[in-house]
């Protein structure tokens, strides 16, 4: 058995690039697609049902600094850099002195959360060939490394990206590069070494997370201005039954399902979204002990701490705080049982402060805090969703040749991934 992979994250049959394309949804995937269509001189229109574009991506301005609603930036790719240069956006590189990434074990910040023996066991285990193809991230971690590495390194890292536990997440859906290696080699070590020698490094690549002076809102605002004439707000449009016009739905799966009344609707309705909350807090630097300069920390579920991780915003980028004496921290949470979304802002603050004090010693309270709540935040990249991609793609190609689906549930969850796929779409 070999893992399957999509040729494109924009699901469905190839659309006619000489005819106009209607984009449903002005979130970041719709804006990215609109930008690349416009640059390629392909006619299009964006229809957004709310009174603003950007979706869940955006930045709030607070008294003491800025707070991201979701992503704090993106990673480098040629398509993204070219787009930013074209839009006149000045890219903010991360502080080179604050690149350390920590993991929490025994409620302490550690660059390596494993003991020497645990690490040696994991490295040794990955050297030997394995015959089974793991389905989940946890199965991969425990089969090719060990349980400790999965608990304290692999799962926390992917919780920070996909908001999913190791046994919830699809291995080929979240780690496609390694899955492709395992398609060719049973040994991860041998395949990885071969891939390393074959890999060509781009000399223009910028390492680390990239953003802008005023946060990701700068990207949204620039795309909104660039696409102003092609965007209609407070719009309602439904492609179902229209066989002549072309559509790319960039709406979430739970909204896109309403365009269909057959088994495709059922498939889209079955896609689960995690319930997420982020809280940005501003502190006086002198009030926080046990703190280390760096990018942030990820927290294993074995630590019995509610928050998934903490971003050290003002260490990563300039301009995240309005005073040098302040520190900005963003806590990422997933509401596993529905209890967090029900909390008031004040009780949620108490919950977060209690967790932060398990890692850092904090004197007093935060000077200010900002909360962003997303009951349907991001799609869970489960093994079922991985299978759904191929099913959705086949149904669209057979029954809805004029409709494509594109978004953070169609195999690319990041800004970088969606920008790359939109660029590839117009060039295909």
Short overview:
The protein has 16 helices and 16 strands. The protein is of the alpha/beta class and 428 residues long.
Features:
428 residues; alpha/beta; FAD/NAD(P)-binding domain; protoporphyrinogen ix oxidase, domain 3; seven-stranded mixed beta sheet; five-stranded parallel beta sheet; 16 helices; 16 strands
Word description of this protein:
The protein is α/β, with parallel strands linked by helices and 428 residues long. Among the domains are: 21-53 and 227-271 and 381-427, 3-Layer(bba) Sandwich (FAD/NAD(P)-binding domain), CATH 3.50.50; 101-198, protoporphyrinogen ix oxidase, domain 3, CATH 1.10.3110.10. It has 16 helices and 16 strands. It has helices at 28-39, 78-87, 116-126, 137-144, 147-162, 171-174, 176-184, 188-198, 217-226, 253-256, 263-269, 313-316, 339-342, 345-359, 383-399, 415-427, and strands spanning 21-24, 44-47, 59-61, 66-68, 101-105, 108-110, 231-232, 246-249, 273-284, 288-289, 296-299, 309-312, 326-334, 361-362, 368-379, 403-405. A seven-stranded mixed β-sheet has the order 6-5-11-12-13-9-15, with helices on both faces. Strands 7-2-1-8-16 form a five-stranded parallel β-sheet, with helices on one face. A hairpin with a 4-residue loop joins strand 3 (59-61) and strand 4. The longest helix has 17 residues, at 383-399. The model has no long low-confidence stretch (mean pLDDT 93).
């Amino acid at each position: 058995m070999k893992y399957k992979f999509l040729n494109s994250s924009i699901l469905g049959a190839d659309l006619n690039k000489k005819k106009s394309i209607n984009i449903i949804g002005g979130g970041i995937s719709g804006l990215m697609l609109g930008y690349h269509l416009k640059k390629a001189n392909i006619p299009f229109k964006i229809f957004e049902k709310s009174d603003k574009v950007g979706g869940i991506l955006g930045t709030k301005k607070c008294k003491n600094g800025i707070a991201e609603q979701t992503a704090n930036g993106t990673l480098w790719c040629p398509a993204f850099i070219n787009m930013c240069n074209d839009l006149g956006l000045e890219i903010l590189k991360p502080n080179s002195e604050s690149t350390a990434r920590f993991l929490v074990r025994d409620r302490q910040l550690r660059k390596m959360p494993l003991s020497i023996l645990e690490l040696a066991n994991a490295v040794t285990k990955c050297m030997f060939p394995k015959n089974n193809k793991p389905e989940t991230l946890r199965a991969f971690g425990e089969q090719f490394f060990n349980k400790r590495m999965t608990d304290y390194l692999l799962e926390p890292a992917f919780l920070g990206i996909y908001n999913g536990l190791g046994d919830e997440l699809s291995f080929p859906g979240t780690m496609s590069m390694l899955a492709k290696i395992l398609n060719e080699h049973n040994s991860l070590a041998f395949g990885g070494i071969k891939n390393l020698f074959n890999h060509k490094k781009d000399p223009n690549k910028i390492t680390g997370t990239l953003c802008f002076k005023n946060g990701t809102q700068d990207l949204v605002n620039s795309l909104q201005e660039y696409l102003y004439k092609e965007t209609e707000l407070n719009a309602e449009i439904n492609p179902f039954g229209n066989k002549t016009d072309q559509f790319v739905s960039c709406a979430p799966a739970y909204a896109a399902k309403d365009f269909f009344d057959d088994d495709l609707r059922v498939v889209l309705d079955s896609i689960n979204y995690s319930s997420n909350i982020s809280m940005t807090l501003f502190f006086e630097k002198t009030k926080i002990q046990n703190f280390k300069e760096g990018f942030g920390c990820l927290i294993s579920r074995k630590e019995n701490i509610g928050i998934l991780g903490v971003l050290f915003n003002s260490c990563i980028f300039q301009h995240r705080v309005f005073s040098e004496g302040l520190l900005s921290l963003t806590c990422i949470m997933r509401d596993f049982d529905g209890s967090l979304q029900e909390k008031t802002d004040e009780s949620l603050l108490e919950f977060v402060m209690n967790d932060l004090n398990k890692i850092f010693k904090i004197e007093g309270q935060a000077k200010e805090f900002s909360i962003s709540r997303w009951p349907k935040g991001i799609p869970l990249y489960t093994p079922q969703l991985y299978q759904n991609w191929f099913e959705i793609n086949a149904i669209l190609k057979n029954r809805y040749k004029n409709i494509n689906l594109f978004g953070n549930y169609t195999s690319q969850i990041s800004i970088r991934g969606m920008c790359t796929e939109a660029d590839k779409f117009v060039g295909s």
